[in-house]
Amino acid sequence: MDDLEIQLDELTRNPSPRVPVSLCLDTSASMDGTPILELQDGLKRFFVELLENKGARYNADISVVTFGETAQQLLDFRPIEKQRVPELIASGRTPMGRAVELALDTLELRKRVYQTTGVDYYQPWLVLMTDGQPTDDIATAVTRVQRLVNDRKLTVYPIGIGPQADLAALAAFSPGRAPFRLQGLAFREFFSWLSQSIVRVSATSVGDDVQMPPVKSWSDSWD
Amino acid sequence: MGLSVRTYKVATAAVRGSSHVERGEPCQDFAAAKRTKSMLAIALADGAGSARHADIGARVTVSSTLAILRREFEVLSDAGVAMARDRVVSALRQRLTGFSRQRSVHLRDLSATLLFAATNGSSFVCGQLGDGRIASFDRNLSMAQTMFPPTKGEFLNETIFVTSENAPEAFQWRTGAFEDIGGFALMSDGAEESLFNRHEKRFAPALTRMAGWLVSHSEMTAKQALERNLEGALRVHTDDDVSLAFMCRASESDPPDHNGSRSDARLLR
């Protein structure tokens, strides 16, 4: 061995930094039919795109929480190559408050795992999608989200699906900017944008500014 | 009798990460050393990715720090953190502000983190602002330990820069006797990625081996070896710029070759 040459086994290997993303999805009865099928299809595309990107495949850390019959975490954070896209079934009401709290709780748990295992991570994202209005009390969830957003500890993407989406409720989860409205059922376009955004964030270094891709491919709202 | 600065050798190196190579952008890390008859210092800065002139900011930060250490070392060697904030951080920010006005650029576009260490042979001073890591070695250069916890936010792309409003409060500072210390290594976060295991909180074996190069080789040979290895193995696990600066105790009979140091006063002209 050359005295002045370092070998790879003399170095250490730290885990890839993570971008934790919690998808909090409305699977209430009103999503039955084409909307839930399109959402399912978009979700599949999302995982395929992440797996195809050599950076994002190791950086993206995805959880899926749904709210319909109940609020539940259908998919826990894990390396995405070990995850199976969950089957979405539309039924029940819209317990959005409980679902958002569950999403926040699981994000907090995930951050604790990162901290104890020496994994660096980016600011977590919460994607909240609904086609209706909450059927439970959202006050506590709103307070928690607003505090996190104002403290720059969380980025929220509230997205209304269709004309019945309660944009006022979504706006409460999004201090400082209006919620998005999905163009028709452009779930595929949205999830494609989301995977590109994760790629961009995961490619940034300390102090970098992140420019997200434009949202016009999937949103009627602002850009 | 106290040791002299002739007992110590230095080597510094910084190379572009693959992301900057691909985009044709300059290296935003910079490391350099300064030797006088009575003082030896190393400094390393990592320019902020969001800063338009991060490469220049890193160079000016390092050269200004070395100039301050050269001028103020004797005072600083006894200074507490309050005085060091004033003599180092405030002075550095004044220099950066002056440079930004002179060149008509925004101060924030010169943002960089800072690590440094200096000695007069018997005492040392060390300081850190932002991320990256300073290691101190034992007398035999066989063990390394972290000098300060890195100053960074909760999230990966958050840190403190010399130009940050809260830089004085975030500044970490230590002085002491060099008696039981064999030297220091400064590393940018890019180099730290391969040299410090965050889970086990220990340095990789490569760090002490590289420090040993300064004992067994000339400063120039060690510097060239550092550059080759930063270009090679140390860039495998990161696409960030990587930089290192070493100051290690050699021996009186093996004096430094005086070409590992450089003056960067020209940067301020």
Topology:
The complex is a heterodimer of chains A (223) and B (269).
Chain A: E1 19-26, H1 34-52, H2 56-59, E2 60-67, E3 71-75, H3 96-117, E4 125-130, H4 139-150, E5 155-160, H5 167-172, E6 180-181, H6 187-202
Parallel strand pairs in A: 1-2, 1-4, 4-5, 5-6
Antiparallel strand pairs in A: 2-3
Helix pairs in contact in A: 1-6, 3-4
Chain B: E1 8-15, H1 18-23, E2 29-35, E3 40-47, H2 54-76, H3 81-103, E4 112-119, E5 123-129, E6 133-138, E7 144-146, H4 167-170, E8 172-177, E9 181-187, H5 189-195, E10 196-197, E11 202-203, H6 205-216, H7 219-231, E12 242-249
Antiparallel strand pairs in B: 1-12, 2-3, 3-4, 4-5, 5-8, 6-7, 6-9, 9-12, 10-11
Helix pairs in contact in B: 2-3
Can you walk me through this structure?
The complex is a heterodimer of chains A (223) and B (269). Chain A has a single domain (14-202), classed as von Willebrand factor, type A domain (Rossmann fold). In chain A, 35% of the residues lie in helices and 16% in strands. Chain A contains six helices and six strands. The model of chain A has no long low-confidence stretch (mean pLDDT 92). Chain B has 269 residues and is of the alpha+beta class. Chain B is 33% helix and 27% strand. Chain B contains seven helices and twelve strands. Chain B has helices spanning 18-23, 54-76, 81-103, 167-170, 189-195, 205-216, 219-231; strands spanning 8-15, 29-35, 40-47, 112-119, 123-129, 133-138, 144-146, 172-177, 181-187, 196-197, 202-203, 242-249. In chain B, the strands form three sheets. A five-stranded antiparallel sheet of chain B has the order 1-12-9-6-7. At the A-B interface, loops of A face helix 5, strand 10, helix 6 and helix 7 of B.
CATH architecture annotation of chain A: 3-Layer(aba) Sandwich
Outline the low-pLDDT stretches of chain A: none
Q: What percentage of amino acids of chain B are in beta strands?
A: 25-35%
- CATH homology group of chain B: PPM-type phosphatase domain
Largest protein-protein interface: A-B, 29 and 47 residues
Number of helices of chain A: 6
Q: In CATH terms, what is the fold-level topology of chain A?
A: Rossmann fold
The total count of strands of chain A amounts to 6
For the largest beta sheet of chain B, what order do the strands appear in spatially?
1-12-9-6-7
Note the main sheet of chain A. 6 strands, mixed
The tally of domains of chain A stands at: 1
Strand order of the largest sheet of chain A: 3-2-1-4-5-6
Question: How large is the count of helical segments of chain B?
Answer: 7
